[in-house]
Amino acid sequence: MEGFSPLFLIHLGSLKIPITSSVLVQWVIIVILAVLAKIFTSGMKKIPDKKQTVIEIIVGSIQNLVDDNMGKEYSSYIPYVGTLAIYILVMNIAPVVVGMRAPTEDLSVTTGLALITFFLVQYNAIKKNGVGRYLGAYAKPAVPLLPLNIVERVVLPVSLSLRLFGNLTAGAVIIGMLYKGSWFSRVLVPVPFHAFFDLFDGSIQMIVFVMLTIMNIKVIAEE
Protein backbone atom coordinates (compact mmCIF):
# COMPACT_ATOMS: atom_id res chain seq x y z
CA MET A 1 0.00 0.00 0.00
CA GLU A 2 1.27 3.46 -0.88
CA GLY A 3 2.19 5.84 1.91
CA PHE A 4 0.52 9.15 2.65
CA SER A 5 1.82 11.68 0.10
CA PRO A 6 1.93 15.37 1.15
CA LEU A 7 -1.06 17.38 -0.04
CA PHE A 8 0.73 20.67 0.56
CA LEU A 9 3.58 22.17 2.58
CA ILE A 10 3.53 24.68 5.43
CA HIS A 11 6.61 26.92 5.35
CA LEU A 12 8.02 28.09 8.68
CA GLY A 13 11.15 29.93 7.69
CA SER A 14 13.48 27.34 6.21
CA LEU A 15 11.40 24.53 7.68
CA LYS A 16 8.92 22.78 5.39
CA ILE A 17 6.16 20.79 7.13
CA PRO A 18 4.37 18.30 4.86
CA ILE A 19 0.61 18.04 5.43
CA THR A 20 -0.78 14.66 4.42
CA SER A 21 -4.38 13.48 4.24
CA SER A 22 -3.92 11.78 7.62
CA VAL A 23 -3.08 15.15 9.19
CA LEU A 24 -5.91 16.90 7.37
CA VAL A 25 -8.49 14.30 8.42
CA GLN A 26 -7.29 14.62 12.03
CA TRP A 27 -7.79 18.39 11.91
CA VAL A 28 -11.32 17.88 10.64
CA ILE A 29 -12.03 15.27 13.32
CA ILE A 30 -10.69 17.53 16.09
CA VAL A 31 -12.85 20.45 14.95
CA ILE A 32 -15.98 18.30 14.61
CA LEU A 33 -15.49 16.67 18.02
CA ALA A 34 -14.86 20.06 19.64
CA VAL A 35 -18.04 21.50 18.11
CA LEU A 36 -20.09 18.44 19.10
CA ALA A 37 -18.70 18.55 22.64
CA LYS A 38 -19.72 22.21 22.92
CA ILE A 39 -23.21 21.52 21.56
CA PHE A 40 -23.90 18.45 23.69
CA THR A 41 -22.55 19.91 26.95
CA SER A 42 -24.29 23.28 26.73
CA GLY A 43 -27.42 23.88 28.77
CA MET A 44 -27.00 20.92 31.14
CA LYS A 45 -30.05 20.29 33.33
CA LYS A 46 -30.81 18.52 36.59
CA ILE A 47 -33.45 16.50 34.76
CA PRO A 48 -31.64 15.36 31.61
CA ASP A 49 -33.23 15.47 28.19
CA LYS A 50 -32.36 12.97 25.41
CA LYS A 51 -29.20 14.83 24.41
CA GLN A 52 -27.89 14.99 27.97
CA THR A 53 -28.87 11.37 28.62
CA VAL A 54 -26.66 10.20 25.75
CA ILE A 55 -23.72 12.20 27.09
CA GLU A 56 -24.23 10.88 30.63
CA ILE A 57 -24.29 7.29 29.35
CA ILE A 58 -21.00 7.82 27.49
CA VAL A 59 -19.33 9.55 30.43
CA GLY A 60 -20.68 6.96 32.86
CA SER A 61 -19.34 4.10 30.73
CA ILE A 62 -15.87 5.63 30.59
CA GLN A 63 -15.94 6.33 34.32
CA ASN A 64 -16.91 2.73 35.06
CA LEU A 65 -14.14 1.49 32.76
CA VAL A 66 -11.51 3.49 34.64
CA ASP A 67 -12.92 2.73 38.11
CA ASP A 68 -13.22 -1.01 37.46
CA ASN A 69 -9.76 -1.45 35.92
CA MET A 70 -7.69 1.23 37.67
CA GLY A 71 -9.56 2.15 40.83
CA LYS A 72 -11.27 5.34 41.91
CA GLU A 73 -7.93 6.94 42.81
CA TYR A 74 -7.25 7.18 39.08
CA SER A 75 -10.43 9.15 38.32
CA SER A 76 -8.31 12.08 37.11
CA TYR A 77 -7.47 9.98 34.03
CA ILE A 78 -11.11 9.69 32.93
CA PRO A 79 -10.89 12.70 30.56
CA TYR A 80 -7.75 11.32 28.90
CA VAL A 81 -9.13 7.81 28.53
CA GLY A 82 -12.43 9.12 27.16
CA THR A 83 -10.76 11.47 24.70
CA LEU A 84 -8.37 8.74 23.56
CA ALA A 85 -11.20 6.23 23.03
CA ILE A 86 -13.43 8.61 21.06
CA TYR A 87 -10.57 10.04 19.00
CA ILE A 88 -9.14 6.65 17.96
CA LEU A 89 -12.60 5.23 17.22
CA VAL A 90 -13.54 8.15 14.96
CA MET A 91 -10.20 7.91 13.13
CA ASN A 92 -10.64 4.15 12.65
CA ILE A 93 -14.11 4.46 11.12
CA ALA A 94 -13.21 7.51 8.97
CA PRO A 95 -13.10 5.43 5.73
CA VAL A 96 -16.80 4.61 6.11
CA VAL A 97 -17.78 8.21 6.84
CA VAL A 98 -15.59 10.28 4.51
CA GLY A 99 -14.32 7.65 2.08
CA MET A 100 -10.65 8.44 2.84
CA ARG A 101 -7.94 6.32 4.40
CA ALA A 102 -8.00 6.14 8.17
CA PRO A 103 -5.37 8.35 9.82
CA THR A 104 -4.40 5.32 11.90
CA GLU A 105 -3.07 3.71 8.71
CA ASP A 106 -0.25 6.25 9.05
CA LEU A 107 2.49 4.93 11.33
CA SER A 108 3.45 8.44 12.40
CA VAL A 109 -0.08 8.94 13.79
CA THR A 110 -0.15 5.71 15.81
CA THR A 111 3.41 6.36 17.00
CA GLY A 112 2.38 9.80 18.24
CA LEU A 113 -0.55 8.35 20.17
CA ALA A 114 1.66 5.60 21.62
CA LEU A 115 4.31 8.11 22.74
CA ILE A 116 1.70 10.21 24.54
CA THR A 117 0.62 7.13 26.46
CA PHE A 118 4.25 6.12 27.10
CA PHE A 119 5.20 9.46 28.64
CA LEU A 120 1.95 9.56 30.64
CA VAL A 121 2.76 6.11 32.05
CA GLN A 122 6.23 7.26 33.13
CA TYR A 123 4.88 10.53 34.55
CA ASN A 124 2.29 8.70 36.63
CA ALA A 125 4.88 6.23 37.94
CA ILE A 126 7.20 9.06 39.00
CA LYS A 127 4.30 11.00 40.54
CA LYS A 128 3.18 7.97 42.56
CA ASN A 129 6.61 6.74 43.68
CA GLY A 130 9.08 9.59 43.36
CA VAL A 131 12.14 9.63 41.12
CA GLY A 132 14.22 7.35 43.37
CA ARG A 133 11.73 4.51 43.60
CA TYR A 134 10.84 4.92 39.92
CA LEU A 135 14.46 4.40 38.86
CA GLY A 136 14.93 1.66 41.42
CA ALA A 137 12.06 -0.34 39.90
CA TYR A 138 14.19 -0.91 36.80
CA ALA A 139 16.52 -3.09 38.90
CA LYS A 140 13.76 -5.28 40.35
CA PRO A 141 13.58 -8.11 41.22
CA ALA A 142 17.35 -8.28 40.60
CA VAL A 143 19.96 -5.87 39.26
CA PRO A 144 20.99 -8.15 36.34
CA LEU A 145 17.47 -7.69 34.96
CA LEU A 146 18.03 -3.95 34.49
CA PRO A 147 18.61 -4.16 30.70
CA LEU A 148 15.52 -6.34 30.21
CA ASN A 149 13.35 -4.00 32.28
CA ILE A 150 14.51 -1.01 30.23
CA VAL A 151 13.74 -2.85 26.99
CA GLU A 152 10.31 -3.80 28.36
CA ARG A 153 9.47 -0.15 28.99
CA VAL A 154 10.75 0.99 25.59
CA VAL A 155 8.81 -1.75 23.80
CA LEU A 156 5.47 -0.34 25.03
CA PRO A 157 5.13 2.53 22.50
CA VAL A 158 6.51 0.29 19.75
CA SER A 159 3.95 -2.45 20.36
CA LEU A 160 1.06 0.00 20.81
CA SER A 161 1.81 1.86 17.59
CA LEU A 162 2.54 -1.19 15.44
CA ARG A 163 -0.51 -3.12 16.66
CA LEU A 164 -2.93 -0.32 15.81
CA PHE A 165 -1.17 0.57 12.55
CA GLY A 166 -0.80 -3.05 11.43
CA ASN A 167 -4.40 -4.08 12.00
CA LEU A 168 -5.90 -1.02 10.31
CA THR A 169 -3.49 -1.25 7.37
CA ALA A 170 -4.14 -4.98 6.88
CA GLY A 171 -7.88 -4.38 6.68
CA ALA A 172 -7.39 -1.53 4.20
CA VAL A 173 -5.19 -3.72 2.01
CA ILE A 174 -7.81 -6.48 1.87
CA ILE A 175 -10.59 -4.02 1.00
CA GLY A 176 -8.37 -2.38 -1.60
CA MET A 177 -7.80 -5.77 -3.27
CA LEU A 178 -11.56 -6.30 -3.48
CA TYR A 179 -12.05 -2.98 -5.25
CA LYS A 180 -9.56 -4.07 -7.91
CA GLY A 181 -11.70 -7.09 -8.84
CA SER A 182 -14.76 -7.37 -11.07
CA TRP A 183 -17.67 -4.93 -10.98
CA PHE A 184 -19.56 -7.40 -8.77
CA SER A 185 -16.81 -7.44 -6.15
CA ARG A 186 -16.52 -3.65 -6.25
CA VAL A 187 -20.27 -3.12 -5.74
CA LEU A 188 -21.40 -5.83 -3.33
CA VAL A 189 -18.53 -7.71 -1.71
CA PRO A 190 -16.82 -4.75 0.07
CA VAL A 191 -19.95 -3.92 2.09
CA PRO A 192 -19.56 -6.67 4.74
CA PHE A 193 -15.79 -6.21 4.67
CA HIS A 194 -16.19 -2.50 5.40
CA ALA A 195 -18.53 -3.41 8.24
CA PHE A 196 -15.99 -5.85 9.67
CA PHE A 197 -12.65 -4.09 9.15
CA ASP A 198 -13.72 -0.44 9.50
CA LEU A 199 -16.49 -0.70 12.09
CA PHE A 200 -16.00 -3.93 14.06
CA ASP A 201 -12.22 -4.29 13.90
CA GLY A 202 -11.80 -0.53 14.20
CA SER A 203 -13.78 -0.62 17.44
CA ILE A 204 -11.85 -3.64 18.74
CA GLN A 205 -8.48 -2.00 18.06
CA MET A 206 -9.63 1.12 19.89
CA ILE A 207 -10.60 -0.99 22.90
CA VAL A 208 -7.26 -2.84 22.84
CA PHE A 209 -5.28 0.42 22.70
CA VAL A 210 -7.30 1.99 25.51
CA MET A 211 -7.17 -1.10 27.73
CA LEU A 212 -3.40 -1.44 27.32
CA THR A 213 -3.08 2.24 28.15
CA ILE A 214 -5.05 2.13 31.38
CA MET A 215 -3.46 -1.14 32.52
CA ASN A 216 0.07 0.15 31.93
CA ILE A 217 -0.66 3.41 33.76
CA LYS A 218 -1.73 1.40 36.80
CA VAL A 219 0.69 -1.55 36.67
CA ILE A 220 3.90 0.40 36.03
CA ALA A 221 3.13 2.74 38.93
CA GLU A 222 2.57 -0.18 41.30
CA GLU A 223 5.60 -2.31 40.39
Automatic annotation (TrEMBL):
The keyword Glycosyltransferase does not apply. It is found in: Cell membrane; Membrane. Pfam families: ATP-synt_A (PF00119). Coiled coil: none annotated. Its main location: membrane. GO terms for molecular function: proton-transporting ATP synthase activity, rotational mechanism. The chain crosses the membrane at residues 20-41, 77-101, 107-126, 160-179, 199-221. One of its GO terms (biological process) is proton motive force-driven plasma membrane ATP synthesis. GO terms for cellular component: plasma membrane; proton-transporting ATP synthase complex. Belongs to the ATPase A chain family. Key component of the proton channel; it plays a direct role in the translocation of protons across the membrane. This is ATP synthase subunit a. The lineage of its organism: Bacteria, Bacillati, Bacillota, Clostridia, Eubacteriales. The gene is atpB.
